[in-house]
Amino acid sequence: MRPLIGITTSDSDSGTHIQLRMDYHQSVEDAGAQPVLLWRCGEAAAEGLAQRLDGLILAGGGDMDPARYGQTRHEKTELVSSGRDDTELWLTRAFLEAGKPVLGICRGIQTLNVALGGDLIQDLPQMRGVKHANVRHEITWPEESFLSAIFPYGKIEVNSFHHQAVGRLGVGLQCAACAADGTIEAVSDGRRNLYGVQWHPEKEGGAGQPMAPLFRYFVAQCIR
């Protein structure tokens, strides 16, 4: 039986539909797992899902409320959803407690970091003088990074669609990749099967595409 992997979703602009790019679903399916789309849930339901599912993907989307990590709101912080913040923090902690793998993508790496007590840089252009929106750039990582088991070259080029980034690392997380400007591009805690990437691998994650090995790696952790 294929492992079941939950994927979090966003509200549509109208607020009447849930939404998720189809390439998340396709990337997980092509990697050998069955995607299960998740919307809002309470803390008890999150704990139940963590028992039933084999892994969790925290998908991309709008910004997290900075009050969640002890900061006042920057003028560039946008598309905040309190309901989504609650759900994803409950899910992350429930899967952590259950010992199930978690992969955070874009917003998801930030959610994972905040769930573990870290904080965020609310706007890279204004606060750090660097741009990571609608560009491609190279990332590199140390030999001990989980990415070394996926990509053999020690560096890759990634897409970039974010204005926020991981700041102070959450408890147990380690930087697993950086951009040349020092922006954290991946985090992990291998002992707890926690992984996060700041780029959007699902855009290139289908069978035969450059990011397919990342999804196969995550699915393999869920099978274990």
Tell me what the structure shows.
It is built from six helices and 13 strands. It is an alpha/beta fold and 224 residues long. It has a nine-stranded mixed sheet with strand order 4-1-5-6-13-12-11-8-9, with helices on both faces. α2 crosses α3. The longest helix is centred in the middle third of the chain and has 17 residues. The mean pLDDT is 95. Keywords: Hydrolase. Pfam families: Peptidase_C26. One of its GO terms (biological process) is polyamine catabolic process. One of its GO terms (molecular function) is gamma-glutamyl-gamma-aminobutyrate hydrolase activity.
Concise account of the structure shown:
The protein is α/β, with parallel strands linked by helices. It has helices at 22-30, 43-52, 82-98, 107-115, 124-128, 212-223; strands at 4-8, 10-11, 18-19, 34-38, 55-58, 102-105, 120-121, 133-140, 155-161, 165-166, 174-179, 184-189, 194-197.
